[in-house]
Amino acid sequence: MTSPKQLAVRILWNLNQGVGRVRRLLTRGRLDHYDRLHLGSGSRRLEGWANLDIDGYGHLVWDLRKPLPMGTDRARLIYTEHFIEHIPRDDARKLFTHARSVLKSDGILRISTPDLAKIARDYVEGKLVQMPHGNWFPATLCQMMNDAMRRWGHVFVYDQPELESLLRECGYTRIERVRWGESDHPELRGLESRPDFDDLIVEARP
């Protein structure tokens, strides 16, 4: 027999599922008004961008493992920061393939993610990195390395050759590493929200 508490949990779950379905349907229509996409936005909202996340905290609800709900050749700019390390490589390949299909021929995809080469170099050189802004204070190099690979829900951390290889698989032909907060394109400047720890940041074009 279902208890009142179990019934309440079931009702709440069904209600949340229903709200999620409605918000996903709304996302399909609302994307028509944007040509700049912020993927995996979490709670951070970039004004003038479509901020897409599975929970929709920032703006719009969408599961980024699925094709983006907009037509081809629609997006001028796509940005994602500290998101792809949280999903398997195969899901990232699907995401960037979907992104490529909606990106204009002269569009730009900008990705910011932790750099595996930097993490490994710090370990080998005995440089213990701590991040007060994230309340991260590993006590040893071993803890630092393990946290960098597994903490915060990290699944797959990239170095530059691996990320470039992935992007070429997805149809991007012009890939350039860029510096934190800098870009030849004014709308892509100053987007990074985390302190500069020599992250791997690239801009890719079809």
From TrEMBL:
GO biological process: methylation
Pfam families linked: Methyltransf_23
GO MF entries: methyltransferase activity
Keywords: Methyltransferase, Transferase
Superkingdom of this protein's organism: Bacteria
Protein name stated in the entry: Methyltransferase domain-containing protein
Annotated source species: Sphingosinicella rhizophila
